[in-house]
Every structure is written in C-alpha cells, then in structure tokens.
Amino acid sequence: TLTDTDGNLYTLYELLKEKELVILDFWYCMCTPCKSEFPYFDAALDQYGDRISLLALNPIDSEDAIIQLRNELGCTFPMLLDTVNLYRGFDVTAYPVTVFIGSDGTVLSIHSGAFSSQKQFLNEIEKHLK
Q1: What ranges make up the beta strands (E) of the chain?
Q2: What is the pLDDT of residues 37-56, one digit of tens each?
Q3: Residue 113 falls in which region: left (phi positive, over 0), alpha (psi -120 to 50) or beta
C-alpha cells in the first residue's frame, strides 16, 4: 500500500480487483526520458481509464519535489513516493521502467527505457487488454 502526493491510498491487490491492467511506472524527477512519457500516460488514462490503473512510482525524490514537478507539468495521473522500495522487486536499475500487471497479478511485461511514442505505449496496453 502506497500513498500518492494527494494523500490517496493505493493497494495493488485492490487495484487488481477493479481493473483489467495495472501499470507501474518507475521514474525520478531529473530523468528526461521519464518525463517524456508523461503525456502518453494521460492520453492512455483518457482512452482506457475505466479498464486500467496507472501509478507513477518514484523511489528517489522527495514528496515536495514530486509535487512541484507534477504541478509544473500538469500531470493528472497518480504520482507516488515508493516508500516500500517496490522498485527492488522488479530489479529496476535504470529509469524509466514500466511494468504491466494483469488482473490475476501476473506480470505481463516489463518495458525498460522510455516509450518512443504515444502509439507505442497504447499498443503495449492494447496487447494486454482482453
């Protein structure tokens, strides 16, 4: 269970019960490739928000830094401080890393590096939706 920068609680188990696909994106504030993906996330939620949940997890920066960046970029998706070091469970050693998890809890794919386009990101989502 993690808390976003607005104080909302997120539990992976609960999200998996509600959505077909949960997407975890591991990033940090100074990562330019990480930030380049953020518009794709908002677009994906606009298109598939009833079927997916997307959480941007930051294991490096302070909550204040995350809030400042979120406000600066106008991101609408949840940004969370990875206080439980979830990134270690996915062996994240470089950023960004995006993990796609099916409703049964199975890791469907892990994408290392930034998605190069919105189409590429949406195609990855569509591949995993039933």
Answers
A1: 2-3, 9-10, 21-26, 52-58, 79-81, 97-102, 107-112
A2: 999 999 999 999 999 999 99
A3: left
pLDDT tens digit sequence for 69-82: 999 999 999 999 99
65-102: buried (b, 16+ CB within 10 Å) or exposed (e) per residue?
A: ebbebbeeeebebbbbbbeeebbeebebeebbbbbbbb
pTM: 0.95
- In sequence order, the 6+-apart residues with CB closer than 8 A to the CB of 19 are 51, 52, 53, 103
CA distance 24 to 97: 8
Tokens (6 digits) for 56 = 């941007």
